[in-house]
Amino acid sequence: MIEVEGTLKSRLAIWLLATVSALGVLLLVEAYFSSQHAAERAYDSQLEAAALTIAEAVQWEAGQPVVKIPSAALQILATRHQERVFYAVLDADGQRVSGNLDLDIAPEWRRRASSQPIWMNEAYQGTQWRLYGRELDSAGWETQDPVQIWVGHTMTGREALTEVLFEQAVTRFVIMVLLAGILMLLAMRVALAPLRRLRQQLRRRDADDMRPLDTRVPEEMREMAETLDSLFTRQRQGREALLRFTADASHQLKTPLAGLQTTSELALKRDSPDAWRQALVEVHGSAERTSRLASQLLSMARLRHAVEANATSRIDALALLHETAFDWAQRDAAQAHDIGLAPLPASPQYIQGEVWALRELLGNLIDNALRYTPPGSVITLGAVCHAQTLELYIEDDGPGVSPDVMAHLHHPFERGDRQDTEGSGLGLAIVDSIVRRHEARMQVESAEKGGLRVRLLFPYLTQHEEE
Amino acid sequence: MRLLVIEDDPLIARSLEQALTPLGNIVEVFTHHAQAREALQGGQFDLVLLDLGLPDGNGLTLLAELRQRGDTTPVLILTARDGVDDRVEGLDLGADDYLAKPFSLAELEARVRALLRRSQQRVDNRLVFGALTFDAASGVVTLNDRVLDLPRRELCLLEGLMLHAGSITPREALENRLFGYGDVGPNALEVYISRLRKRLDGSGLRIRTFRGLGYRLEEVSS
Amino acid sequence: MPIRRVALVWLLGALTPSLAWADTPLVVEAALDRVVAAPLLDAFEEAHPHIQLNFRDHSTLEVDARVADEESPPDVVISSAMPWQMARVNEGYAQRLESPEARAWPEWAKWRDEVFGFTFEPIVMAYRLDLSRHMMPPNTHADLHALLTQHRETLRGKVTTYSPLSSGVGYSLFQQDARYTPRFWDLVAAMGAADTHLEANTRAMLKGLSAGRYWLGYNLLGSYAMVWAQSHPEVIVQVPQDYSLVMMRMAFIHRDAPHPAAAREFLDFLLSQEGQRVIAGETPLFSVRPDVIGPYTAQRLRDQVGQRLYPIPLNASLLAFVDPSRRAAFLSRWQREFNRLSNPEPAQGAAPTE
Fold first, then answer.
1. Are A326 and B222 within 8 A, CB to CB?
2. Which residues of A touch C322 (CB under 8 A)?
3. Architecture of B2-124 per CATH?
4. How close, in Å, is residue A235 to chain B by CA atoms?
């Protein structure tokens, strides 16, 4: 049964989207951090510039640093975002030369700034401030004491810039995803084209077109196409076999029917009851043969074309053997022979199989034995329990068959040496087919008394101990 | 015996009529289920030969109707379909026997005889086969009108054989009859069979052995 | 407030109890003459009858001190001392105003959307009408310097200007003057040589001019001067023609304002078309909004004076003026310059520098 579960397109789409989204999230996270970093660098350079501007305004009077804060420096600190600003100029002892807010510069910071300029974040009056501290070497006449310049501002501008940069990144990303989505749809159409082509090709085929596929496919579809091809081939072969078989069979049917026609035609030309009687006997025999052939052909057809394997069941092989022997022993055709059953093992033996087929199988073998042995012959059916297999056998004390013919016996329409009686050669072919279907083996050998023994070896249904 | 044949193929119908009439039977042939139904409702028949493949319906329906009415007339089904399922279905619905086409007339005759005999036995409560008669009520056996004095086991054995006269009586059935369900040696039955054989010597009847299967009481000429 | 008004408010309050606005008090600390601002305040009270306006008129230094009052901070702070206002805002004392008026306010007249310059007051010279009998009245700074030099003896003790020490706005104005030209210090020296009297506010200077104690005043607030001149015809107001400073009075809402909603309404009113129209029409404070028509608008001032209007920039550079070091340096220079020409009198027997 063919169940439709989603579409290839949706599978592709979902997976692509999932991966793109996952990557996208990572990208966005990275974009956020790099936006932040970029904003930080931009604004930090403002702090640096302001500090340098203040540094330029530091002068020395009587050994003391004096600074006239340039308003430009304050504007630089404030930036376009009108931040709140902080500045402090400290002398060598950390005392304020000048400054605005009462943000304390901790000694630890001064120490760090003395080796190199530092940037840091600090909370003050409920908001985050970004501070920059730098030490300025002096070259005065009286002293060479260093001076530290500290500047800072609030961070709204930075945050705004980060947001703007990040928004830009997000926008770009969204646009990219949309574009990618559209392109993806197009690409999928193109990529899935081979599937479409194959589908169209198959659809255009006639129902009974079994020619091999002639198409171009990508690597992944090669296996599927090859499997389809082999399916077509098998069907073609099956059909050819069927045609061959039908041809053979009809040929076989025509022969006795032609005989019937000629005999009856000839008989009509005669006018003695004896001649008619003779003709009728022949006609009767021919009719019987044709009937038998027809039913055998049916069996063959049934065997060759039955596809369902779930008709098998658990069968008591010994009971079946007994039943079949009983049935045939009662028949008219068996009256002249001595059909009997050898003593069977006491407990039931189970095999997996189809009842009708096994009946057919045994029936065909019994039928053959009846036909190919003279009246009065003893035909015995029996069973033997081997270690791995259950053997069902049929034995007769008739004339038997020579070894080199035995090999060909189960080809359809082969009759071996046994030409002296009626019957067609389908019987053993049917038997062979059934044997194979049941995963069993058939052995044909000469019996001790010169007749034929046919042994059928079936695998047990359950494990069995050696007797 | 009155026999009803439901068969639409003229060739087969004629053959049946010609084969069965000489046995002392009155054969009526119908080619459609509808007519046959009427005939069945009206008259009394001893046997019905029913071909399933008639154009106007499924013969099994007719059979089912018959049995539902409580009519126990023996029915022999004829059909070209040979599947096990068809057989089983037919027998389940109440047919007494089943014969696949193509059949040999000899086979047909034998089965008809067996069916008639069985039904006769049910009516009479007396088993008759050739020169033998067996009165189930009194337990008396006569051969050629001469009473045979048989020990109990032999009597049982003979009764069993006569019940299946014309067919093979299964071995197990005879053993159960004679010995119950106990364990007996394989030859125990043989002993009684051979004793019975001696008694039947020259009566035109014999007991034929079917190895591993059973025994059959039959007339010598066959 | 007039009894009538009280009754009206009471009546309104009684008639509309469902109004969410019960009577809210509003404390406005302002370095702004009540007389000058009266029309504006009246208009506000009319428009917002449910707000009880408490307008306190103090000096710039007092106003600045009250900003830091933790116990009872004012709701709105208005001052003409621009650097000090900016410093308070920088310290975080202002709260942001989110309103359409605030957003629409011109960028150059506001800072952080927290403090807004809502007036555009020119800084002027003023003189007595009868000065012209003695000398040519000054038009420009150069004229002033020339007068002070040539007519020093005539003008001795009769000139007045702001004291940079005691007036925040005065100090700011002098700082601005110093930015634009180094010749400013010559002017300071000239003023010092003429024994210029240093006053703490424009009102004092105007009173002195009217009383006749002063003949000439420099760097007065144009708004006050014009109002004064309307009722005192003997005083002439002159906007300097070479360049004129413009001072913007700055207002902000205190971050700890006890009545923030009312404060927002007040500041919005100052920035609104209505309020600015009152400023343009009924006060000499000069409105800032470009879409307002009236006699006292920034546009009109620009038309009159032209390119040489130099408004004091409302940005972080103002903070430089409150830098103590810088302030100290400026004041000490002021002192030096002021005394430059007059000091060496006794020792040298200085020749009159006419």
1. no
2. 100
3. 3-Layer(aba) Sandwich (3.40)
4. 27
Residues in chain C: 354
What pLDDT does residue A308 have? Answer: 52
**Does C126 fall in a domain?**
yes
**Of residues A146, A156, A152, A133, the one with CA closest to residue A87:** A152
C316–A82 CB contact, under 8 Å = yes
Phi-psi region of C286 (alpha: psi -120 to 50; beta: other; left: phi over 0): left
Residue-level pLDDT at C38: 92
H helices of A306-395, in order, are 317-330, 355-372
Q: Is the backbone peptide bond immediately before A70 cis, with ω within 30 degrees of 0?
A: no
What residue in A sits closest to B171 (Cα-Cα)? A326
pLDDT, tens only, C230-260: 899 999 999 998 889 999 999 999 999 999 9
The predicted pLDDT at position B123 comes to: 66
Nearest to C320 among A71, A126, A127 (CB): A71
Query: What are the beta bridge partners of residue C55?
Result: C28
Domain boundary residue, one of A255, A284, A303: A303
Answer whether A356 touches B (CB < 8 Å): yes
Q: Tell me: the pLDDT tens digits for B115-156?
A: 887 777 666 677 778 788 888 777 788 888 888 888 888 888
- Which range marks the domain in which residue A109 is found? 8-163
**Domain assignment present for C291:** yes
Look at C317 and A82 and tell me if their CB atoms are within 8 Å. Answer: no
CB atoms within 10 A of CB B201: 8
Nearest-CA distance from A78 to chain C in Å?
Answer: 6
Residue range(s) of every CATH 3.40.50.2300 domain in chain B: 2-124
For strands C24-30 and C76-79, give the pairing.
parallel
Query: Is some CB atom of chain A closer than 8 A to the CB atom of C320?
Result: yes
Q: Is C325 on the interface with A (CB under 8 A)?
A: yes
Domain range enclosing C165: 121-240+323-348
Min distance C39 CA to chain A CA atoms (Å): 33
Residue A1 lies in a domain: no
Residues A329, A335: Cα–Cα separation, whole Å: 7
Assigned domain for C25 exists: yes
